[in-house]
Every structure is written in C-alpha cells, then in structure tokens.
Design goal:
31% of the residues lie in helices and 24% in strands. With 191 residues, it is an alpha+beta fold. The N and C termini lie far apart (32 Å).
Length: 191
C-alpha cells in the first residue's frame, strides 16, 4: 500500500489511471520540459507513471502524484504533476543518494505548491524513512527549480556540480548543479 502525505494545500499519493492523460499533456508541454532534453511521448510519460507507482509500492520511495486540494471538483481535476523522492540511478561523486524532485504543469507554477509538497517530502525522508541526506540537481539554466531547492533549505554544493552522464558532451543542459540538505540542517530549520 502506498502512503499519502498531506499539507495544508496539497496531497501526495499513489498514481491512478485517470492521472495519465493530464500527466502526458504536462510531459509533452515544451515549456514544462524546457530544461530536459525533449518533451516525452505518451508512451514515455505512461511508463514513468507506472515505474513511479511500482517504486512507491516496492520501496516507499518514488515520486508521488500531486493533487491540489482546492481544485478537487469534477470540472477541474486536482492532478498537478509530481513531487517525491527517488534513488539516483546513475553514478556520480555524490552517489549513492536519494534525490528530491518535482514537475508541475504551467498552471500550477508560482503558487508555492512545489515548495510546500517538497518540504513535506523532506519530513517523510528524515522522520519516517530515516535518511541522513537528500540531494537535488538540475541543469544550470533551470532557475525556477533552483529557487525551490533554496526555499526548502537546500544549499548548493559547487564542488559536486557534474556533467549529467545521460546527456552528450556539448549538450547545453549537460552541466548540473547539485544541492543538498542533511537531517541536521533540516532539523535546525524547523526549530
């Protein structure tokens, strides 16, 4: 069974078949995918949702489907992308590691939903999963994600910035910035 995490305005939960259309639409949006190599096909989007659900069921770590509570009506679906934790699946100087990440549709940007849900994921990571550290990373041009990382208390670790191994040499998004937060740092912020 996949747990659900709540905040004042958001709910993080397992994936449902009815999420797939909105998820595919979001993943195909060039604006949402600006800092990724390319928008996703429907097949890639569906596969990500399936893998996310499987990881949540198997490990309790994965990206949760994000709901915005104020949008819970039949006329306006509450699905708003994802926020969650996942194990980094490539080798780098900072791995093994657990990453926190998010992806929201354009209509949900700039309202604090990513930061609010990500903070709840950090509580889950440290208090309920016993993790000692969580990382996050993004391509250098992705200032909005960097801002979320800073808002949730993460600090940039320039010594650990890296070239993403899944992107070719010379790709404009290859260089990534690494942010991190430890359990102790998170605890200090909560006091």
């Amino acid at each position: 069974m996949v747990i659900a995490l709540e905040t004042e305005r958001t709910r993080l939960r397992g994936w449902r078949p009815e999420d797939l259309d909105a998820f595919a639409e979001m993943n195909a949006d060039p604006k949402v995918m600006e800092h990724f190599p390319a928008p996703y096909s429907r097949e890639q989007s569906d596969a990500l949702a399936v893998r996310s659900q499987q990881r949540l069921e198997r490990e309790g770590l994965g990206v949760f489907a994000l709901e915005i509570k104020a949008r819970e009506t039949e006329a306006s679906p509450s699905f708003a992308g994802f926020v969650g934790l996942s194990r980094v699946t490539f080798e780098a100087a900072f791995t093994p590691a657990v990453e926190i990440g998010w992806r929201l549709p354009v209509w949900a940007w700039g309202q604090g939903y990513a930061s609010e849900a990500a903070r709840r994921c950090l509580v889950y990571a440290f208090d309920e999963r016993g993790l000692q550290e969580v990382v996050s990373f993004t391509a250098i041009p992705n200032k909005p994600s960097q801002a979320v990382m800073q808002r949730i208390g993460m600090t940039h670790d320039p010594a650990q910035d890296f070239d993403h191994p899944w992107l070719a040499t010379g790709h404009p998004l290859r260089r990534h910035l690494l942010f991190r937060i430890t359990r102790e740092e998170f605890e200090a912020q909560r006091q």
